[in-house]
Every structure is written in structure tokens, then in C-alpha cells.
Amino acid sequence: MIFSNLLTHWYLQNKRDLPWRNTTNPYLIWLSEIMLQQTRVAQGLPYFNSFTAAFPTVFDLANAHEEQVLKLWQGLGYYSRARNLHQTAQYIANELSGVFPDNYIDLLKLKGVGEYTAAAIASFSYNEVVPVVDGNVFRVLSRYFDVETDIAAASAKKEFTALAFELIPKNNPALFNQAIMEFGALQCVPKNPDCNNCVFNESCAALQKKKVAQLPVKSKKLKVRNRYFNYLVVADANANTIIQKRTDKGIWHNLYEFPLIETNQEEDFECIASAVQNDFFEQNSIKSILEYNPKSIIHKLSHQHLHIKFWKVNLNEPIQNGIDNATLKTFPFPIVIHNFIEAHCVS
């Protein structure tokens, strides 16, 4: 078909040289696909290189401690991906003797592997004829064929998958899948694509109808929740501090943080100082309380915005089981706390 031929020809001339494209090893392809969910290639590539250096095989990843995995993942966000990655590596190493499932249906059974990732591994590693459908594919197909289906609708995935299956060359599905994803990432981008210099500028329905900016159709996201975090950066005379592990389900599960006061709104010094004295430390043990950042740091997650303040709490007495700055930096933290530690070198 003309679409497939033009697309693969464009890809062979314009594709980026990425390490996971030079292999059919399912471990490396799986690792790259999990990392690139919700992550741009430019951001994910250094993490992929770090992971493959630290864990060259699925057995190495399986044998690692979860905190080591989370520390290497620090900054990529969506930390459940890292936890699922680690657990799935353990399952493959221990239950499947290190051998990945070799087909789409069985790959779907792995924890953290959805339809898109299963299709990617199945086609790239085993050349199975199964189309990948991600945001790039939604965009390319909706524009080229003028499909107005809301991609947030439950039926959209099935519709676009069926369309992609009609287009995919049965003799080389891996090449087609790589090509359509790359085309969406480099050429048919979300905003202001260069349609004048596009291989499809004579056949793209959206371009002919002047609808490129309107497609794909996507309904509005759910309302974002605002949360207010006040972190207590405690320090004693020995420059030791306190951290805690987030064990509750939700954001940053199993990552570390400073003692936290969560409030319903942004609070002033008096409110936080009162909470520190009433809920954390005896008043006579507190030497001083200082505000690091008068203006909250706004850390945006997909479904919530965190308004974060750091407060320095200096103590008169030594902290029992406190940790020093060098030890502090070995723990996995959310990136916003990691950046604070790097900037202020708690002392």
C-alpha cells in the first residue's frame, strides 16, 4: 500500500540511531519500552544506558535491591513502572528461567506490560504481526485518514488498532511499527508539524481539509488536584538529619522523603512552627525553624500539582539514628527532593 511504502521509505532515511533498535533481545526492548512510557527519548536514553550498564541481563535486574532500581530510576517519574519492572524481572528470571514469552498474548500476562508494550516486544523481537498503537500512532492515523473518534474513548484503541492492522505489512511488521512511531515523534508532531515538507502532503486528509490542528480529537483531562507539602529538613549539631520511607499506596511509593506536614492550603510560618512543636519535637529541643523557600515549588504530576515548601528545623539535641549527608544521597528520592538535597547539601 502507498501509505506503508512511503512511511517505511521515510523511516529508513530519517530514523534516529537508538540502541534498542539495533537488537532483537526482548530484555533490552522491554526495558526501553517501559522507560519510554510517558517519557521523551532524549530524557529516557541516559537512563536506558545506565540501566543496561548496571543490569546487562534480566538476571542482574532481578537480583538487584529495589532501592538500587529506584535510585537509578530517580527523575523518570511514574515510579510504579520501576517497581513493576523489577518484579517482572524477578518473575522472568525465577519462574521462566530468564526466557521472555515469545508472543503477544503471553507477553500481556507480565506485570506492567500493557497492549502497547506487548505489541512492541512481540513485533520487534519476534516479528509477530501485531500493530503498536500509542499516542504517535493515534495522531498519524487520525490525521492521515481524518478519523474524528475521540482517542480518550474506550472504543478508540480497538478502532485504531484495526486500522493499523490493515496497513501493516505482514512480511515486516517490526519495520512498519518502528516507522509509524518515529514518524509521529519527528514529523507528525502534536503542534505545528511541517506539513509542507512531509511525504504525505499530497494524500493526508487532514491537510487537505485544513484540520491538522484539530486532530486527533481528545476530550479534556480530569481536574487536577492541588496538594500542599511542607518538608521538615531536620538537622542536629552533628549535621545529621531524618528521612522516612513512603509506604502508603499513591505517589512515590517506596521512595524516601523528609518528615512531612501536608496541609489543605499554603500555610505561613506560624502554622508550620506550631505543628512542628506540637507533633514532632518538644519545644525546648528546637533551636530554630527557618523557611528555605518562601514561594512554593510547584511540582506537576499527571493528576495532581504539589505545592512544596522546605523548612529547616535545627535541633539542640542529637538525632537518634540520624544519617549524615553522604549517606542521605544514597537513598532514592522523588526528583524534587533530590534536587533540593543537591542544591542545599543538608548540613
TrEMBL record:
E.C. designation(s): 3.2.2.31
One GO molecular-function entry: adenine/guanine mispair binding
Entry note: cofactor: Binds 1 [4Fe-4S] cluster.
Gene3D superfamilies for this protein: Helix-hairpin-Helix base-excision DNA repair enzymes (C-terminal), Hypothetical protein, domain 2, Nucleoside Triphosphate Pyrophosphohydrolase
The organism's taxonomic lineage, starting at the top: Bacteria, Pseudomonadati, Bacteroidota, Flavobacteriia, Flavobacteriales
Biological function: Adenine glycosylase active on G-A mispairs. MutY also corrects error-prone DNA synthesis past GO lesions which are due to the oxidatively damaged form of guanine: 7,8-dihydro-8-oxoguanine (8-oxo-dGTP).
Keywords attached to this entry: 4Fe-4S, DNA damage, DNA repair, Glycosidase, Hydrolase, Iron, Iron-sulfur, Metal-binding
Source species: Flavobacterium restrictum
Protein name: Adenine DNA glycosylase
NCBIfam families: mutY
Family classification: Belongs to the Nth/MutY family.
Entry-linked InterPro entries: A/G_AdeGlyc_MutY, DNA_glycosylase, HhH-GPD_domain, HhH_base_excis_C, HhH_motif, MIG/MutY, MutY_C, NUDIX_hydrolase-like_dom_sf
Reaction equation(s) it catalyzes: Hydrolyzes free adenine bases from 7,8-dihydro-8-oxoguanine:adenine mismatched double-stranded DNA, leaving an apurinic site
GO BP terms: base-excision repair; mismatch repair
Pfam families: HHH, HhH-GPD, NUDIX_4
Domain HhH-GPD, residue spans: 35-186
Cofactors that this protein relies on: [4Fe-4S] cluster
